[in-house]
Specification:
The complex is a heterodimer of chains A (about 60) and B (about 190). Chain A contains 1 helix and no strands. Chain A is mainly alpha-helical. The relative contact order of chain A is 0.06. With about 190 residues, chain B is mainly α. Chain B folds into 2 domains: about 90 residues, Orthogonal Bundle (Rna Polymerase Sigma Factor, Chain: A), CATH 1.10.1740.10; about 90 residues, Butyryl-CoA Dehydrogenase, subunit A, domain 3. Chain B has 10 helices and no strands. The N and C termini of chain B lie far apart (about 50 Å). The chains are: A mainly alpha (about 60), B mainly alpha (about 190). Chains A and B meet through helix 1 of A and helix 2, helix 3, helix 6, helix 7 and helix 8 of B.
Chain lengths: ~60, ~190
């Protein structure tokens, strides 16, 4: 059976312990930004709808 | 964090997507961090850069989790992101190539190494020697060899991951095979 030496050259270094808190902190920040952006997008949509309704009302007058 | 150990990977993904549960993402991190970090480290050869890239890769995984369509194993999808990110890193930093393997290939050996002969050839090379030689070929070629011969990623998937045409992937793999064998021959007289 042929053995592929490239499969055996994976390094096995320990992962720095500081990395996980950094990643999770960044993930929380990213999530917060996404939530804020969703909120803004939602309000923008509402704002545009209100604006259009206001214009239609003006045209009727 | 212990309560997450009883969840499957699909359940963890659902928890992250539906409940925005960052601790569930922490559990996903725990499962894949060793492999991702060591893959990155084997490509960049610097612990500091590997740490930064691994951080960014996990953020990218988090941002793209909704796009995972269960068409492949989750691990394959994660490794695809890892390779793609490292490939982009080298491209942007313009860190190709340390050794002009095209010239070496022409000067040392005109033999082309077909895919089927490649394992036969490298089987005779010691692992430590292979590590040294892998660090001397261009980063892009190293990434391709690791994708194909370490993770058994198909040509079709490599095409998708690196946004390359089939002919480009095959040609670059061929050049990478030639480069690694020629460098090993030159350096260690195998």
């Amino acid at each position: 059976m042929k053995t592929n030496p490239i499969k055996k050259i994976i390094s096995k270094e320990a992962v720095p312990e500081t990395l996980k808190p950094k990643v999770l902190s960044s993930v929380k920040k990213v999530q917060l930004l996404m939530d804020l952006s969703d909120l803004f997008a939602f309000k923008s949509k509402e704002a545009f709808q209100d604006l259009l309704n206001f214009k239609k009302k003006d045209q009727k007058k | 964090m212990k309560k997450y150990s009883r969840y499957s990977i699909d359940q963890l993904i659902d928890l992250v997507i539906q409940n925005k549960d960052t601790n569930a993402f922490g559990a996903i991190y725990d499962i894949y961090i060793d492999t991702v970090y060591n893959k990155v480290l084997s490509m960049v050869q610097s612990k500091e850069i590997a740490e930064d890239l691994t951080h960014d890769i996990f953020i990218k995984i988090y941002l793209n989790l909704k796009k995972f369509q269960h068409k492949s194993k989750f691990s394959t999808w994660i490794y695809a992101i890892t390779y793609n990110y490292c490939h982009d890193y080298f491209r942007k930093k313009n860190k190709y190539p340390v050794v002009n393997f095209d010239t070496i290939s022409e000067k040392i050996n005109e033999t082309t190494y077909a895919e089927e002969d490649f394992i036969d050839n490298i089987e005779q090379i010691k692992i430590e020697q292979l590590k040294v030689c892998l660090n001397q070929i261009a980063s892009e070629e190293k990434i391709l060899l690791l994708m194909k011969y370490q993770d058994n990623i198909s040509i079709r998937d490599i095409m998708k991951i690196l946004s390359l045409k089939e002919s480009a992937v095959k040609m670059r793999l061929k050049r990478a095979r030639e480069a690694i064998i020629n460098i090993c021959n030159k350096k260690f007289n195998n």
